[in-house]
Amino acid sequence: MNWLEEWFTRSKNLVLHPEKFYEDVDAKKNYSYPIKFAVTSALLLSLVVFVVQEFQLAVGLDPMHAPQITGLESLVYLIMVGILGGTVGLLLQAGFIHVFVVLLGFRGYQKTTEAISYPTAINTFFGWIPIVNFFALIYTIYAEIKGIESFHGMSTKKAAVSVILGFVFLVLMVVILFSVIFILLNLEAVAPAVGVEGPLEAFI
Fold it and tell me: How many Cα neighbours within 13 Å face the side chain of 38?
């Protein structure tokens, strides 16, 4: 079985029966496998988005994300985003979830990372479809809860607390980060008009 076949088989089993999947899954106990799985999910999603965007452009529709670049440049961009997002996104989300896993008395960051790597496939299958992607997010959170529960041997309630709070704090961090960037960029644009240095210019 080649890698894509293995990815698809595991993904299909997870999507159809998450509880049974985690009961039967053979834990890899390393970081390379979950990262490889998550990156594959992200790359396949990038390819799907690319195909959809090119199709929309070909038939004269506005693409979902109105890309400023198309064709090969768009594909390369989406692949880079897939690799970066698959790796950093997985480790960052695992980090936020694991904070609460530890607070509840459990250990093993690798376990947390592997547990939430498999549900990334749900986003590959459904994350690009409007409206459906919202329900896919809910299902992803549910699958992550089952994964944390299984890998750490904790109760469903504790696993749910870890995953949901981890997700909430991650979203808050992203919102705060983008808000700060937005404010700084706007101050930088306004500063020359009033004859003062912008915050970024002053810092540099």
Answer: 24
Listed in sequence order, the residues at least 6 apart from 131 whose beta carbon sits closer than 8 Å to its beta carbon are none
Smallest CA-to-CA distance from 117 within 55, 25, 48, 1 is with 25
Task: Please count the structural domains in the chain.
Answer: 1
pLDDT digits (tens, 9 = 90+) for 42-91: 999 988 988 888 787 777 766 555 455 566 777 788 888 888 888 999 99
Cα–Cα distances (Å) from 173 to 34, 169, 199, in that order, read 24, 6, 21
* Residue in this structure with the two tokens 């939430």, named with its chain if needed: 116
Q: Which residue is listed with tokens 């390393």?
A: 30
Q: How many CB atoms lie within 10 A of CB 136?
A: 20
pLDDT tens for each residue of 4-26 = 999 999 999 999 999 999 999 88
Burial class (CB in 10 A: 0-12, 13-18, 19+), 156: exposed
Judged by DSSP in three states, 63 sits in: coil
Domain extent for 59: 3-203
Q: How far from the centroid of its chain's Cα atoms is residue 49's Cα?
A: 15
